Task: structure prediction
Amino acid sequence: QVQLVESGGGLVQAGESLGLSCAASGSIFSINTMGWYRQAPGKQRELVAAVTRDHSTSYVDSVKGRCTISRDNAKNTVYLQMNSLKPEDTGVYYCNAFITTRGITYRATNYWGKGTLVTVSS
Result:
């Protein structure tokens, strides 16, 4: 079955940079959109950035100019490079991917990683 595993979270100071990665594995036929969500304590989960199979990207307004999302289709991996981090960027970051699997039939499903914690101190 499909698994998404995030890595790269940690504790950084305001103004510093951090890079996240997420690798998908399993019986994968194809991956359409991949993205990163985040959730801070007491807040709803929000979409931070997304990238399509042909590398078209989108970002939430609060991170535009500071973050870059990219993907390596050969490695089934999506990345999020975050620069000039702010305390309000603190939260658990989740990897998400819309994946078609190959079994008895083809099935398209949204998958989630377990999350990685990013803490930005002031």
Summary: The longest strand covers residues 28-39. The radius of gyration is 14 Å. Residues 21 and 80 are 6 Å apart (CA to CA).
